[in-house]
From TrEMBL:
Residues 1-21 form the signal peptide. This is Alginate lyase family protein. InterPro entries: Alginate_lyase_dom, Chondroitin_lyas. Residues 84-364 form the Alginate lyase domain. The keyword Transmembrane helix does not apply. GO terms for molecular function: lyase activity. It comes from the Bacteria. Keywords: Lyase, Signal.
Length: 419
């Protein structure tokens, strides 16, 4: 594994994977608000995926293990199904199968009740019922992963078949009147016997963050027509409007833990894609005082995440949207990487707090049901922090994670976030 510099593609789950080494590049392209990197990327309108990072990966990776893993994923998606919310076996309370539904991950049948309802919460323990065909979370995840793999395979190989299948998946999920998802999450993360939907359900659409980047990568293929591109932008604009006006969306915005951070990250990213740069700028400009100041302590701890049964995992899970927003910041002139609150709170402080536990997870002084699994999710985060701060220590942490994680040999996480 090459020490220090990587180019990579982050999967939604952030599971660790093979990392492609790539050289540093001299001049960083510029993200221009809602047009993203299109001007420097042959019309590819991406916002976090960097032109030079992807170009370096395409040059250096061909034939390597990570490249082969990517092509294998894409070929599986090419031969695989299309996905739609109307395919689920359960009908939402609205009676409209175009409405997305999912179940809260940590809710289980109550053995003390004849029919198990109302369900009871077991923090950190995922009920596999959530991933059955009755609900849409697994289906959305599969769609997003397939679109990502296909768009990147198209970029790496130039083969139109990959772009064509990605466009088919996008039409089916977002555009076709017979199969499209309504741009709302009213019935997301419901709990049987308690509520048909919760504010926490807004988190489910984090899976779509990689979709908007993938759409940009597809641009030169013309697999999507101009009208279809516009239709996708309208869909995400409608969803951004729902996030801001629906009761559960407003409740999620008020969350004081990682849910509030993910809300802001999604809203900013979707607003940029929907050509609403003023909204994105407003969201990102408020992150320092509204999120970082109250959620990160002076010593870098994230107290809301430390109260969970998977405290190390959730500390990184809260850092992920912060890093995402810091990466989006230059698009609208906001610097979150270097933000410091009145007590020194900031993204850097959070990394400094967590870094000593990389490779020494057992020493983390808070409860985590699976501490050995937590740090591997942070590989791309340390990579990006190393670049943002010019910090060799963070680069070394990324190398340590990559070398010590068995899963690093099993799937690709390359990602084009590098400058």
């Amino acid at each position: 594994m090459s020490a220090s510099i990587r180019v990579a593609i982050l999967c939604a789950s952030l599971a660790a994977g093979v990392v492609i080494a790539a050289p540093a590049v001299a001049a960083a392209p510029v993200c221009r608000a809602d047009d993203g990197y299109a001007a420097a990327f042959d019309g590819r309108r991406t916002f976090r995926w960097k032109p030079q990072g992807l170009a370096a990966a395409r040059t250096e990776a061909k034939g390597g293990a990570a490249y082969q893993a990517l092509i294998a994923r894409a070929d599986k998606a090419l031969a695989g199904p299309v996905y739609s919310v109307v395919d689920k076996s359960r009908t939402p309370p609205s009676g409209d199968k175009h409405d997305y539904i999912s179940m809260g991950p940590y809710w289980w049948p109550d053995p003390a009740q004849p029919n198990g309802e109302p369900y009871i919460r077991k923090d950190g323990e995922v009920n596999p019922e959530r991933n059955t065909n009755a609900f849409d979370a697994g289906r959305m995840d599969a769609m997003a992963g397939a679109v990502e793999a296909l768009s990147l395979a198209y970029y790496f190989t130039g083969k139109d078949a990959y772009a064509t299948k990605a466009a088919q998946l996008l039409r089916t999920w977002f555009l076709d009147p017979a199969t499209r998802m309504n741009p709302s999450m009213t019935y997301a993360q419901g709990v049987p016997g308690r509520t048909p939907g919760r504010a926490e359900g807004v988190l489910d659409t984090y899976r779509l963050l990689r979709v908007v980047e993938s759409i940009g990568v597809l641009a030169p293929s013309k697999a999507l027509t101009a009208a279809e591109q516009k239709g996708l932008e309208v869909w995400f604009g409608d969803y951004a409007a729902w996030m801001q006006t629906a009761p559960t969306g407003q409740q999620e915005r008020a969350a004081r833990n990682n849910h509030g951070l993910w809300y802001d990250y999604q809203l900013a990213a979707f607003a940029l894609f929907a050509r609403q740069p003023d909204l994105a700028r407003s969201v990102l400009a408020g992150v320092g005082k509204a999120r970082i100041d109250p959620q990160i302590e002076a010593d870098g701890k994230l107290p809301e995440e430390l109260a969970r049964t998977k405290a190390l995992h959730y500390s990184y899970f809260a850092l992920e949207p912060l890093v995402g927003m810091a990466e989006l910041g230059p698009c609208v002139g906001v610097d979150l990487w270097n933000y410091k609150g009145p007590k020194g709170q900031g993204i850097r402080a959070a990394f400094d707090h967590l870094a000593p536990f990389v490779g020494n997870e057992a020493a983390f002084p808070y409860k985590d049901l699976k501490p050995e699994d937590a740090t591997k999710e942070a590989l791309p985060l340390y990579d990006l922090a190393a670049r943002a701060y010019g910090d060799a220590g963070f680069a070394a942490k990324a190398d340590l994670i990559a070398k010590s994680t068995p899963a690093a040999q099993s799937r690709l996480i390359i990602a084009p976030y590098r400058k």
